[in-house]
Design goal:
CATH superfamily: Ribonuclease Z/Hydroxyacylglutathione hydrolase-like
Strand order of the largest sheet: 1-2-3-4-5-6-7
CATH topology: Metallo-beta-lactamase, Chain A
Number of strands: 12
Helix content: 40-55%
Radius of gyration: 22 Å
Bound molecules: zinc ion
CATH architecture: 4-Layer Sandwich
Number of helices: 10
Distance between the termini: 61 Å
Largest sheet: 7 strands, mixed
Order of helices and strands: HEEEEHEHHEHHEEEEEHEHHH
């Protein structure tokens, strides 16, 4: 017996609907939930420096005798994961006295308000980041692509706003007891993008650590007619020069993938010198070279138009 075409279409449509509603949507929802709750093992890096972030987005704890410092706030779902990680390592959330912001986007500043509430720590942000972070990501000049701007205006990228207690200028050092972390404004990814440098004492050596702010240009940015982000081209070029001038042993980024967090962590578990795999000047230089090459390519493409 052959089904008339009409019936066949109906049968296929019902089958697709059953498959989507009964199987695919629940699978997708489960995957999203699992992803939202994904955890990473917190771990030691070197000296008084620890990783306390999530699998994709990082956060770092620097222990001090007079209070600890936390770099990076994670996204809006990460605050409690960071705190759990701090406690899993045996440290106390209430010892965190300073939160250092890196950039004002949802994935790096979204957790700051939760962290501030749970720790009572004071938040430090660069001049250019401060207003955006204090507004929960609203009016962010580094969102330049028109559809994204419209979405941002509708509040899609908004996060709960933390209180910015201190504004830092380029070259300014934040002190918590003997801890000293210097802010370098490295704009391009965002006008207030902040790179933090400090030293850790690991056994009998001092290691220079750079928490490098993002070098990815805002999606849809024009380097030749930068109406949405004036000065983006010179900002980026200056940042690359600044970043190349910094002394570096260990480098870190907000996105763990960028500095090879998991690979280095796995290698450190087996290494005779556990900090060894994190010492990576070559990887740091290469990351800047790659970002600069992408910038030059984009610039050449846009100049040709
Ligand atoms: Zn960002």
């Amino acid at each position: 017996m052959r089904l008339p075409l009409r019936h066949l279409v109906l049968v296929v449509a019902v089958a697709v609907a059953v498959l989507a509603g009964g199987v695919l949507v629940p699978m997708w929802r489960q995957a999203v939930e699992r992803n939202l709750d994904a955890r990473a093992d917190p771990h030691h890096i070197a000296g008084n420096l620890y990783f306390v972030g999530a699998p994709a987005i990082t956060a770092f704890l620097l222990l001090g005798a007079d209070g600890d410092v936390l770099i990076g706030g994670g996204d809006h779902l990460m605050g409690h994961k960071i705190l759990d990680n701090v406690e899993q390592l045996g440290f106390e959330r209430k010892n965190i006295r300073a939160l250092l912001a890196t950039d004002p986007h949802l994935d790096e500043a979204g957790g700051l308000a939760d962290l501030q509430d749970a720790t009572g720590a004071e938040l430090w942000a660069s001049d250019a980041n401060a207003d955006v972070i204090a507004a929960g990501g609203f009016n962010d000049p580094s969102i330049v692509y028109t559809p994204y701007r419209l979405m941002a205006r509708a509040g899609i990228n908004k996060y709960r706003a933390p209180r910015v207690d201190h504004k830092v200028k380029d070259g300014e050092t934040v002190h918590v007891g003997a801890l000293a972390l210097t802010a370098h404004i490295t704009p391009g990814h965002a006008p207030g993008c902040t790179t933090w440098t400090f030293t850790v004492r690991d056994h009998d050596r001092d290691l220079h650590v750079v928490h490098r702010c993002g070098l990815e240009l805002p999606y849809g940015a024009s380097l030749t007619d930068p109406q949405q982000y004036p000065g983006i081209r010179s900002d980026f070029e200056r940042s690359v020069t600044t970043l190349r001038s910094l002394p570096v042993d260990i480098w870190l980024t907000s996105q763990g993938r960028e500095y090879g967090r998991f690979r280095k962590y796995e290698a450190s578990l087996k290494a005779e010198d556990p900090a060894g795999p994190f010492i990576d000047l070559e990887g740091y230089r290469k990351s800047i070279d790659n970002a600069e090459a992408a910038f030059r390519k984009l610039l050449a493409e846009q100049e040709r138009k």
